[in-house]
Specification:
The chain has 227 residues and is of the alpha/beta class. It is built from seven helices and six strands; from the N terminus they run ααβαβαβααβββα. A hairpin with a 2-residue loop joins strand 5 and strand 6.
């Protein structure tokens, strides 16, 4: 007769009770450890998320702020003679009509482009007439450069390469509320603009442009539904 058979019914009952209590205690410990682990994980995630939010909120925004010149709708005669504080303009009196999304091969009227910015568009203005040997800053001679589009320059391999890079960015980011347009009046190769914001560069910096798009697209003073 083995040891278990020698035990009385009462003793077996006590042993079973102790075993169940030990089992319950073990399960409780496992739950406590698991809950602490989950809690620490959540705290870690929240802490990391908070750190990321603080870090991102303290990052400088791309480009430079431009003083707001209003958003009144006026006639073409009025916006044509208005003195804007940047080139391309980032705000100010403008036309009732706006330029739709897309890539354009000819310059578009600034009064219409400003209206697009009001709707939250981001515009990439490029000038193939600006060469690396004669780079100018955005603040010099605003709007006084020749507005001609010399076929030899604008059909050159360098210009086509520039346009191709901009097209790739539009393809990656989608053309929603985006405009790419030639602008022979700007004094840098590229000016990226949104409402009250401008970033100028003399070579395509894809990350900088994409950061600008992420920060300012659809953030104009008018929240419009665009296709």
């Amino acid at each position: 007769m083995d040891q278990e058979e020698k035990l009385t019914k009462k003793e077996r009952k006590e042993i079973k009770k102790v075993t169940e209590q030990q089992k319950i205690s073990q399960q409780r410990k496992i739950r406590i450890i698991r809950n602490w682990g989950i809690g620490l994980l959540v705290i870690g995630l929240l802490g990391g998320g908070l750190f990321w939010i603080i870090k991102e909120s303290n990052k400088p925004l791309p480009g430079q702020a431009v003083e707001d010149q209003g958003r009144k709708h006026v006639s073409q005669a009025e916006w044509e003679k208005f003195k804007y504080n940047s080139n391309p303009p980032t705000s100010g009196p403008h036309d009732e009509t706006w330029v739709k999304k897309g890539m354009y091969s000819v310059p578009q009227p600034k009064g219409l482009l400003i209206h697009s910015l009001e709707h939250g568009y981001v515009e990439l203005h490029y000038n193939c007439n600006v060469t690396n040997s004669k780079l100018k800053t955005q603040n010099s001679k605003l709007g006084t450069e020749s507005a001609s589009m010399d076929d030899a320059v604008w059909n050159s391999g360098e210009c086509k390469n520039l346009i191709g890079q901009l097209k790739d960015i539009m393809s990656d980011k989608t053309d929603w509320k985006m405009i790419i347009v030639p602008n022979p009046t700007i004094t840098t190769k590229l000016s990226v603009v949104a409402w009250d914001r401008i970033d100028v560069m003399n070579m395509v910096n894809k990350k900088e442009i994409e950061d600008f798009i992420n920060a300012f697209r659809d953030h104009g003073p008018e929240q419009t539904m665009e296709p």
